[in-house]
Amino acid sequence: xxxxxxxRIDCGELTFEVAYYDIEELNRRAEAGETDVSKISYALLxxxxxxxxxxDSGSALGRGNGPVFVARQGTPxxxxxxxxxxxxxxxxxxxxxxxxxxxxxxxGALLGNRTRRGTRGVRRRVLIHEGRFVYxxxxxxxxxxxxxxxxxxTGLPLPLGAIVARRxxxxxxxCEIERLLRTSIEYAxxxxxxxxxxxxxxxxxxxxxxxxxxxxxxxxxYSLSLGDEGRRAVRELTGVEDDPPxx
Length: 247
Fold this sequence. Notes:
Layout (H helix, E strand, L loop, with lengths): L1 H4 L17 H9 L5 E5 L3 H4 L3 E3 L5 E3 L5 E5 L9 E4 L5 H9 L4 E4 L16 E4 L3 H4 L5 E6 H9 L3 E9 L4 H20 L5 H7 L5 H11 L2 H4 L2 H12 L9
Parallel strand pairs: 5-6
Antiparallel strand pairs: 1-9, 2-9, 3-9, 4-7, 4-8
C-alpha cells in the first residue's frame, strides 16, 4: 500500500487516514464497525458480511504461504494439548479448529519473546507472516504446515487476509477504492525498491531476505484480483456463497 499511502499514484480527491494494528485488533475494529476500509482475516468474513463487502483487490491469498504450527524442539506432537494463536478470529485459528479440533487455543503475540493475555510459557504456537521464515531461530520446529494441509485437502489456494469496505459507502466510491488498491499493488510490482523504507517502518523482521520472502509469498496475482479460483477458495473457507445485501 506504499504507493497509495505515500502519493506515488494519483488518488484524485480521495485521501486515506491510515491506522496500523495487529490482525486481531483489526478484526475487532471491523467486527465493531469502526472503520470504513480495513484488512481482516478471511475467517471473520461471515460475521461481518452484512456490514462490509469484500474488495476484489488487496487480498493475501495463495499457495505455500499458510500458517505454520510449531513447537519447542523435541516436543512429541501427540502430547500437544494447547497452542497460542495470533487471534481467535484469524484464519490461522480457523485452520487449527478445522484440522486439529481437539487442541485448545489461546490468543497471544507469537514472535520472538513477545507474550500477552496468559500465553507466557506456551511453547506451541501457530505463526503467520514473517514467523514462518524465522521460527527455527526461536528454537522451534515444524509440527505441520497448515497451508499445505489445506491445499492437499481442497486443491485450492488459502485465503488469509482480505480487504473489506463498509457497505454504507457509495458503490462508486467502493469501486474506486478497489481500483486504487490494485493500481498501488501494480506500482509496487514495477518499483519494488521504492517501497522498502515504508515496509521497514512497519515490518516485524527487518532482514531484507525475510522481507523479500514475505512479499513473494503473500503478494501475488490474487492480490490484484481474486479471480474465479480465489473466490472458490473464499467460499470453501468461509462458507460465504454470495455477496448479500446489508441487513
